[in-house]
């Protein structure tokens, strides 16, 4: 289990870098409106990061828990992962805003703390629901 936690932290850290890079590219070079910069770019960057994180989860972190490796299994796991990741994103934003409201900390500090909480929730959902061990 410790190996899974470490792999999860490393691969999700990589996903965070991908998210940030894509957000920067789209907001700096593709869009020049508020909606493009603050709505469309974050959605695109989030979805690409979720896809990257899912690939690492499906093929690396919980590979032994995927009993059938076919298209249907991949899509079923991906849809569940994407749905829960979207819910966890909302939780992360809630904690980020709560920390800012309570402590008036810089957004980067609030985001990092919120990521720790939401990352723990995301790991638990992946461990016990999406890639749960078959009995």
What's the SSE blueprint?
Blueprint: H1 2-30, H2 34-61, H3 71-103, H4 107-130
Helix pairs in contact: 1-2, 2-3, 3-4
Task: Give short descriptive properties of this protein.
single chain, 135 residues
Number of strands: 0
Beta-strand residue fraction: under 5%
What is the helix fraction of residues, given as a range?
over 70%
Largest sheet: none
Rg, Cα atoms, Å:
16 Å
Instruction: Calculate the terminal CA-CA distance, rounded to whole Å.
Output: 17 Å
How many DSSP helices?
Answer: 4
Oligomer state of the chains in this structure: single chain
Secondary structure class reads mainly alpha
Unreliable spans are none
What best-fitting shape do the alpha-carbon axes yield? globular
- Spell out the helices and strands N to C: HHHH
Domain count: the total is 1
Mean pLDDT: 89
Written description of the protein model:
- The protein has helices at residues 2-30, 34-61, 71-103, 107-130.
- The chain starts with a helix and ends in a 5-residue tail after the last helix.
- The chain has 4 helices and no strands.
- α2 (34-61) packs across α3.
- It is mostly helical.
- The model has no long low-confidence stretch (mean pLDDT 89).
- It has one domain (2-130).
Summarize the structure.
With about 140 residues, this protein is mainly alpha-helical.
């Amino acid at each position: 289990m410790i190996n899974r936690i470490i792999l999860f932290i490393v691969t999700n850290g990589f996903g965070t870098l991908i998210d940030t890079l894509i957000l920067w590219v789209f907001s700096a070079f593709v869009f020049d409106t508020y909606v493009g910069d603050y709505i469309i770019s974050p959605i695109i960057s989030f979805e690409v990061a979720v896809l990257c994180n899912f690939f690492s989860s499906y093929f690396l972190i919980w590979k032994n828990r995927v009993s059938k490796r076919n298209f249907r299994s991949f899509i079923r796991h991906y849809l569940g992962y994407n749905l829960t990741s979207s819910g966890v994103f909302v939780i992360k934003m809630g904690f980020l805003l709560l920390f800012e409201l309570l402590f008036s900390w810089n957004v980067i500090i609030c985001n990092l703390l919120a990521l720790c909480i939401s990352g723990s929730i995301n790991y638990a959902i992946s461990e016990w629901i999406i890639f749960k061990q078959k009995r």
